[in-house]
Task: structure prediction
Amino acid sequence: MRVLVAGASGAIGRPLVPQLLAAGHDVVGITRRDDRAAAIRATGADAVVLDVLDRGAVDRTVRELRPDVVVDQLTSLPEEYDLRRLDLLYGETNRVRRDGTGALLAAAEAHGVGRYLVQSIAFLYAPEGDRVQDEDGRPWTDAPEPMGEAIRIMVDNERRVIGSDRLVGLALRYGFFYGPGTYLAPGGSFERMTRRRMLPIVGRGTGLTSYVHVHDAASATVAAVERGGPGIYNVVDDEPAAQREWTPELARALGAGRPLRLPRWVARVAAGPLVAGMALEMRGADNARARQELRWEPALPSWREGFRTALDADPPR
Result:
């Protein structure tokens, strides 16, 4: 199949394009920069330099390329992950996800694309009910800002894609990425924060994070290109991680000192109520639907193994 990947030079796009090629697909990657287009072409894929906020250019590109599948991995994340400035983390990405996805989906519907995959996140579930949520859990659309707006935009995208009567739409709710090209990689933001002891355990550290290695996220996306009905799929590993567990394991993997412990009220003052609350109340995600319907299995089923092998500060030779 001809697969058009929007965001092909991003953290998931980089491993995704070679995996799609290896599976026998004809791949065209969209990026905003000429140098990144050259990197995409070096993999054996074709590349298009395109501003996805230009609706006319998006429409012309989809009309000319006639892809069978569009994979929407549109983000515009900053280089640094700053827990104190979540407005910077979400601001431009919100615009790209709202307007860019709107343009790309409209073009796909207009020009006969059969299948559309849109990126979402598995850490959007409201802090209520079961500690680990499946895809029927309530999205936290009333979360404090700026996270609330980001979740509302993604949920709206999910509904438009899945609800389309002109194509088969799937929403992939990815866990928190780790591995090459992500915030959680050697040299990334989380390494710097960990070494500076800026990732403390808050209170009892009971909030859950569902992780996925970026290469596993890519393999799940290849599976969703080829199979699976319309709907939402949590793309996460098998073991949601409590904050009190993953934080010291991350420090150990990076060869850093043990994290500090902070009472919730101190964390609220230092990082704000949203960040402090997530450290205690965030829900994990269940991957049973992706395993069954996409017939996907993560190569790294636990972040514990992944942190040791992918983030080891002094890996074995």
Observations:
- The chain is about 40% helix and 20% strand.
